[in-house]
Amino acid sequence: MYRKILITTDGSTVSSKTACAGVDFAEQMGADILALFVAPEYQYPIYVEIIPPSYPSEEEYMAAMQRAGQQHVQPIVDAAARRGLRCQGLTVFAESPALKIVEVAAREGCDLIFMGSHGRSGWGQLLLGSVTNKVLSHSRIPVLVHRLIKEPAPSTA
C-alpha cells in the first residue's frame, strides 16, 4: 500500500518511541523509509552589536546540527537495516519544521508521513502538538499520527 514512508524525529525519547513504531509499520507495509530530522536555522544574535567570541559561526553551527541530526536518525536507519528495509537518513534546516516535513515528503516521493502526536514540547499539551497539527493542515499525502499510551521514562544514555 505504501512504498516510501517519511518518519520524523526530533531526538526526544517520545520521538524515538514513535520512530520505532514507524519502522514496525514500514516493515508490515514492505516500505522504504526516509528518516528526517529538521534542525533550526542558524540565528545571528540580534541583542548585541557584535557577535560574542564564544558564539558559534554559521559553519560551526551547521556542522554541529548535521552531527546531531545524524545521531537522531541513526537509530531509525539501524532498526530498518535489522529488518532488511531500505532507509535513508536526512537532516535539513528550516524555520518551520512542519512546512519542511511536508516539502521533503513531496520532494522525496514519500506516500505517507509517520509522526508522533507530540515531540519535544510534548505531554503538557492537551491537543496535538503544534508541528503535527501544521503537518496535518498542509500535507497533501496521508499522515499517520502515532500516539503513545503513556509517557516513556527518560533515557539514561
Q: How would you characterize the overall build of this protein?
A:
- The chain has 157 residues and is α/β, with parallel strands linked by helices.
- It has one domain: HUPs (Rossmann fold), CATH 3.40.50.
- The protein is 39% helix and 20% strand.
- The protein contains four helices and five strands; from the N terminus they run βαβαβαβαβ.
- It has helices at 13-29, 58-82, 97-107, 130-138, and strands at 4-8, 32-40, 87-94, 112-116, 143-146.
- It has a five-stranded parallel beta sheet, sandwiched between helices.
- Strand 2, helix 2 and strand 3 (87-94) form a beta-alpha-beta unit.
- Helix 1 (13-29) crosses helix 2 (58-82) and helix 3 crosses helix 4.
- The longest helix is centred in the middle third of the chain and has 25 residues, at 58-82.
- The radius of gyration is 16 Å and the shape is globular.
- The termini are far apart.
- Mean pLDDT is 88; it is low at 122-127.
